[in-house]
Amino acid sequence: MKAGQVKVLRDLEVNLDPIIDFLSKQDDLSALGIKPLTQRLCWMLTVVGMLRPDSIRCIDIADPRFRITDDIVIIPILRPKEKRAGQPISWAQTIQRHENRLLCPVATFAAYLSRIKDSKCVVDHPKYCKTKYTPLVRDCRDFTKPVGSDAISNHAQVIADLVPRQPGTSRTRGRATGATAAFQGGAPVGDIVAHANWSSSILFDKYYRLGSRTKTNLTTTILRSVS
Known about the structure:
It contains nine helices and seven strands. By secondary structure, the protein is of the alpha+beta class. It has a domain at about 15-165: hpI Integrase, Chain A.
């Protein structure tokens, strides 16, 4: 950084009200078109699941660890971009239900699965050609074909763009939006780090926390009366 230059950190309050209002109006998931259903699924996976599009691309629904109930969905991710000690990993993300079915990622996941369940799609892993898997997200025109990370990102962005951006600001990553919304809603940092499968809270603070506002009113906490 040149002398005299100051890096201004982003300090945003994540407001998902426009998206919540939009999703709440899609009152019948079984009748929803496949394209808007795919957009809804990809947005929820990036924001609620805090997953990269590259990781979503590597979801393997044929993995024995895959499970869906009324309350949770366990999503196996086969060799995503993340590594540990330089080695590729395979892990499973758990996403819980929302009491409002129209905001529930588990219900959205189930609705999407019901559309693709009869279409066989077994493909080579995008980075490990000797590994085959059954991807979750498919081409809206042909469920026997997978889609790439860019298509997944574009699907999610359609819904993300419902939130107006401040002038001069760029689009935010879905996992940063989800992590910051959770933090501002009072979720412990440790829970956020574990959910996102980050190696430490440093990653959250350095790359994904969009704002410094917390749910706790530190003014009243600091200036509390002890009498």
